[in-house]
Amino acid sequence: FLHGLCMNERAWQQPAHTSFASWARTQLAARVAYLRYNTGLRISENGARLAELLEREAPERELILIGHSMGGLLAIGALHQALERGLDWPRRVTRLACLGAPHEGASLERLGNHANRALGVSRWTRPFMRLGNLRSDGIRDLRFGHVIEADWRERHADDPRRAHSAVQLAPHVDHLFLAAARSAEGETDRLGDWLVTVPSALARRLHPEGAARRELIRGLDHLGLLADERVYRSLRTWLGDRN
Q1: What is the pLDDT, as a whole number, of residue 108?
Q2: Please, which pLDDT band fits residue 185 given cuts at 50, 70 and 90?
Q3: Are residues 104 and 242 in contact, defined by beta-carbon separation less than 8 angstroms?
Q4: Cα(26)–Cα(30) distance, rounded to whole angstroms?
Q5: DSSP β-bridge partners for residue 180
Q6: In this structure, what are the phi and psi dihedrals at residue 181, rounded to the nearest 5 degrees?
Q7: How confident is the model at residue 181 (pLDDT cuts 50, 70, 90)?
Q8: How far apart are the C-alpha atoms of 204 and 177, rounded to whole Å?
Q9: Using N-to-C axis directions, what is the helix angle for 43-57 and 70-85, rounded to 10°?
Q10: Is 161 left (phi over 0), alpha (psi -120 to 50) or beta?
Q11: In what order do the strands lie in the sheet with 174-181?
Q12: 241 CA to centre of own chain
């Protein structure tokens, strides 16, 4: 399990998650592990570190990655980098789930970037722009969902032009993209889970139909994805389908 921005492994310690982890140990004979990582670093850097960690530590058995928010992007990026490097562990990855991951970017970071750039227009507001520039590289990656170095290497750190990640999903892995919407409107809810929009979490424009299973849960916010029984019911159904 991979946590999201400004969190750690304790974010998963919710009753619904604890019950799910117990189910996985019993019904799937799974070993459950949690990653802690520095969310201020580039997702690509964390992806390289995770790829190396799994190469050293992952057991010789089926691997399933489940990430919340930034953690979902990290899982995709680490798997991509490991495949490119010819590492061994990716061949054992069978499933990868993203819970509220901003595949097409996080709208709040884009709004923050635009607002911060506007502060640079006068000498009176420029000092506040410098404060805004303290946003971490990890947060900047969330603007458009950048997961590997090639996504951002040739761009200015605050470039507002849309440029989503070019990474394609590993074809041998069963992906689940789970989105939340705070209201009952579903995909038409402009605010989504209040941090990530539904289109960004489902990534229909990035990845074709059939590349991932996609599900939407209404009446749920971004942090609620960690604790809601409906999320873990979806994961049980997904993992219980062994075909």
Answers
A1: 54
A2: confident
A3: no
A4: 7
A5: 217
A6: -130, 130
A7: very high
A8: 10
A9: 60
A10: beta
A11: 63-68, 93-99, 174-181, 213-218
A12: 23
* CA count, 13 A, side-chain hemisphere, 16: 14
Q: Under a CB-based contact definition with an 8 Å cutoff, are residues 63 and 173 in contact?
A: no
- Would you tell me the crossing angle of helices 229-240 and 15-27 to the nearest 10 degrees? 20
Which H/E stretch holds residue 116? Answer: helix 107-118
pTM of the predicted model as reported, rounded to 2 decimal places = 0.87
Q: How far apart are CA 196 and CA 101, in angstroms?
A: 7
**Is the per-residue pLDDT at 21 higher than 60?**
yes
Strands 213-218 and 63-68: unpaired
CB contact set of 115 (below 8 Å; sequence gap of 6+):
132
Token digits for 20?
Answer: 């799910």
Q: Does 122 have pLDDT greater than 80?
A: no
In this structure, what are the phi and psi dihedrals at residue 88, rounded to the nearest 5 degrees?
-85, -40
Q: What phi and psi, each to the nearest 5 degrees, are found at residue 214? A: -125, 135
Q: Which residues pair with 67 in a beta bridge?
A: 2, 98
CA–CA gap between residue 193 and residue 2 (Å, rounded): 19
* Phi, psi torsion values for 73, nearest 5 degrees: -65, -40
